[in-house]
Write a structure and sequence with these properties.
Structural class: alpha+beta
Number of strands: 11
Keywords: Membrane, Transmembrane, Transmembrane helix
InterPro entries: ABC1_dom (IPR004147), Kinase-like_dom_sf (IPR011009), UbiB_kinase (IPR050154)
Pfam family, one: ABC1
Radius of gyration: 34 Å
Number of helices: 25
Distance between the termini: 52 Å
Family: Belongs to the protein kinase superfamily. ADCK protein kinase family.
Protein name: 2-octaprenylphenol hydroxylase
Number of domains: 4
Low-confidence stretches: 1-6
Mean pLDDT: 80
Length: about 550
C-alpha cells in the first residue's frame, strides 16, 4: 500500500495530464470512477467544464482513439493491443483502434548521436561510409535512418528515442493502477482481465524498448526460412546492436502499400499473395512463432516475386498444444463442423461459465449460414469476426495469444485480397492442416505424446503422498477448508425445508397409524378410547393426502 501511495505521488504530474485529456473528450465519469478527481485539484476543477459540442457529437470509439493519441506512445500502444481484441470489441471499435499509429516527428540527430556512437564505437562518419542525418521513419519509441557500412552494404539503423523509458514506465504504473480499479469497480469487466491486458501491454512495450530482442526475433525468422528462396528476412549486423540501436540490411524493393509500383516493376501480384500467405501460415501452424502485424507497411516486394518482411517488434508465439487446438479449430472451420468448433471454443473458454447449449446453438446457426457456400467463397476474416462476436455474446474471452493470432490472420487475408481478389485463405490453410495431421500421427510424434502423458501420470502419482500428507496436516490443525460454490442457494434452502417438513409429517403419520392400531386392539377398552383410535387413523390419512399432494405439486413446479 505504501509503495502504491508513493508511486501515485511520484506520478502526480502525469496523472494530471491523463485526467485533463479524459475530461476534454467527455470522460469525466471515468475520472470520478478512477478516483482522480479526489486527488487531483486540477482535474476536480476541470470536471466543472463543459465538453465542447464538437467533441460530444463524435462517436464514442472516435473520442477514445483521439484521447489515446493525445496521451502519447504508451496509450497508443494500448489502443493497438486493444485492436487485437476482436473478442472484446465490435468491428466499429476495432476499426478506430486500427487507425492509431505512432508516427511522430523525428528527434534531432544530435539527440540520438550519443547512442549511435556508443553502438558503433566512435564517430559515425568514421564507422560508416555514409549516414543520413534525417530519419526516413519515426515512431514513438524509435526512429530509423539509412546508412551504408564501410564495405558499402546498405543498412537501416533503428535508434531508440532518448529518455523514453522513464515515461513509459510511469504510464505503465498508472495503467496498472487503473486496471485494478476497473476490475474492482466494474465486476462485469473481469472476464476480460483488464490487469492481464496491461501486463500484455507491458511485455509488448518492454520488448519494443529493447532493440536487441527485435534483432533476436529477426534471426529466429531468418533461421526458420533458411533455404526458402521465396521469402527474405533482413540480416542483422550484431557488432553494432545494443538495447538502444539495431542495425540490419535494407531490403530494397517495392513497398507493400504501392501496388501500382509493383505492377510497373512487372511483379506477379497473385504469386506474391500466395507466397506471403504461405509464409505467414508456416510461421503460425508449423513454427509456432509468427509476425503479428503483417500489414502492407511491413512487407517489401523484391525482384523475382520474393516477399520481404520487416519490423519484427510485434511477434506472437504459440505452444505446441495451442497449435494442435488451432489446427483442430481451422479444420472444423473448413469442414463446417459445428461440434468440432464447439469442442475447441469450450477449451479456449477455460474456467469461464459457459451455457454450452446456447453456445452450441449459436455455432450451429453460424455454420448453417455458410452451408450453401463453396470453400473458395468463404473468407476467413469475416468468419473469424463473426466467431469473436459470437463469443462476446456468450460472455467468452479469447486467450491473449489467440487474439494476436486472429488479428494476424484477418490482416493477412486483407493483404492477400488487396493484391488479388482471387486470394482464398482456405485454399492455403488446407495443405497445412493435412501436413500437421500427417506429422501428428508419425511414430515419433505418437511416442513423444505417450512420453508426455506418462510423465504427467507419474507426476500425479509421485505427488500424491505429499498432497495427502498436507491434507491430513491441515485436518489435524483444523485448518482444512472446502470452498463450495452453490448456485441458487435460496432455492436449495427452500427445497431442504420442504423435505424436512415432509419427513416430519411422514414420521407423525407413521406414529398416528401405530398408536391408533395399538389403541384399537386394546381388549375391554374404556368408553371413547376406540374413538381416539379412529381419529388417529383419520389424521394419518389426512397427513398422507397432504404429503402426496405436496410431492405432486413439487413435480409440477
Amino acid at each position: 500500500m505504501l509503495r502504491e501511495t508513493l508511486s501515485v505521488v511520484r506520478d502526480l504530474p502525469r496523472l494530471q495530464e491523463i485526467a485533463s485529456v479524459l475530461i476534454r473528450y467527455g470522460w469525466g465519469d471515468a475520472v470520478r470512477i478512477l478516483g482522480l478527481s479526489h486527488i487531483l485539484e486540477r482535474a476536480g476543477r476541470l470536471l466543472h467544464w463543459q465538453t465542447t459540442n464538437e467533441i460530444t457529437q463524435l462517436d464514442l470509439p472516435v473520442r477514445i482513439r483521439l484521447a489515446l493519441t493525445d496521451l502519447g506512445p504508451t496509450f497508443v500502444k494500448l489502443g493497438q493491443v486493444l485492436a487485437t481484441r476482436v473478442d472484446m470489441f465490435p468491428p466499429a471499435w476495432i476499426e478506430e483502434f486500427e487507425k492509431l499509429h505512432n508516427r511522430v516527428p523525428a528527434v534531432p540527430f544530435e539527440l540520438v548521436r550519443p547512442a549511435l556512437e556508443r553502438a558503433f564505437g566512435g564517430d559515425i562518419d568514421q564507422a560508416c561510409a555514409s549516414f543520413e542525418r534525417e530519419a526516413f521513419a519515426a515512431a514513438s519509441i524509435a526512429q530509423v535512418h539509412r546508412a551504408a557500412l564501410k564495405d558499402g552494404t546498405p543498412v537501416v539503423v533503428k535508434v531508440r528515442r532518448p529518455d523514453i523509458v522513464p515515461k513509459i514506465e510511469a504510464d505503465l504504473r498508472i495503467l496498472t493502477h487503473f486496471a485494478r480499479l476497473v476490475e474492482l469497480e466494474m465486476p462485469e469487466s473481469r472476464r476480460y482481465h483488464p490487469v492481464q491486458i496491461v501486463q500484455q501491454l507491458r511485455r509488448s512495450l518492454m520488448r519494443e524498448l529493447d532493440l536487441i530482442k527485435e534483432a533476436r526475433n529477426i534471426d529466429r525468422f531468418a533461421s526458420n526460412f533458411a533455404g526458402d528462396e521465396t521469402v527474405r528476412v533482413p540480416r542483422v549486423h550484431w557488432q553494432y546492436c545494443s538495447e538502444e540501436v539495431n542495425v540490419q540490411d535494407e531490403l530494397q524493393g517495392v513497398p507493400g502499400s504501392d501496388l501500382a509500383a509493383a505492377r510497373a516493376a512487372g511483379l506477379d501480384l497473385g504469386l506474391l499473395a500466395a507466397r506471403g500467405g504461405d509464409a505467414v501460415l508456416k510461421m503460425i501452424l508449423l513454427d509456432g512463432y509468427f509476425h503479428a502485424d503483417p500489414h502492407p507497411g511491413n512487407v517489401i516486394y523484391l525482384p523475382g516475386n520474393v516477399v520481404g518482411m520487416i519490423d519484427f517488434g510485434m511477434v506472437g508465439r504459440l505452444t505446441e498444444r495451442r497449435r494442435e487446438q488451432l489446427i483442430d479449430f481451422l479444420n472444423a472451420l473448413v469442414l463446417k463442423d459445428a461440434e468440432g468448433m464447439l469442442n475447441v471454443l469450450t477449451v479456449w473458454a477455460g474456467d469461464a461459465e459457459v451455457d454450452e447449449e446456447k453456445l452450441a446453438y449459436d455455432i450451429d446457426e453460424l455454420v448453417f449460414s455458410y452451408d450453401n457456400l463453396s470453400l473458395k467463397d468463404i473468407q476467413i476474416g469475416p468468419l473469424l469476426s463473426e466467431i469473436t462476436a459470437l463469443m462476446r455474446e456468450n460472455n467468452l474471452a479469447l486467450p491473449p495469444d489467440l487474439t494476436l493470432l486472429f488479428k494476424a490472420l484477418i490482416t493477412l487475408e486483407g493483404l492477400g485480397r488487396q493484391l488479388t481478389p482471387e486470394f482464398h485463405m482456405v485454399d492455403h490453410i488446407e495443405p497445412f492442416i493435412k501436413e500437421v495431421y500427417a506429422r501428428r500421427f508419425t511414430p515419433g510424434a505418437l511416442a513423444k505424446r505417450a512420453r508426455h502423458g506418462l510423465r504427467e501420470v507419474m507426476d500425479v502419482v509421485m505427488g500424491l503422498p505429499r498432497d495427502l500428507a498436507r491434507l491430513f496436516r491441515q485436518a489435524r490443525r483444523g485448518s482444512l477448508r472446502i470452498d463450495l460454490d452453490l448456485k441458487r442457494l435460496d432455492h436449495f434452502g427452500l427445497q431442504l425445508n420442504q423435505a424436512a417438513n415432509r419427513l416430519t409429517m411422514g414420521i407423525l403419520t407413521g406414529s398416528l397409524v401405530i398408536g391408533s392400531s395399538i389403541i384399537m386392539t386394546v381388549p375391554d377398552a374404556p368408553a371413547g378410547l376406540s374413538f381416539l383410535g379412529q381419529l388417529g387413523f383419520f389424521l394419518a390419512f389426512a397427513n398422507s393426502v397432504w404429503i402426496l399432494y405436496s410431492i405432486w405439486r413439487s413435480g409440477k413446479d
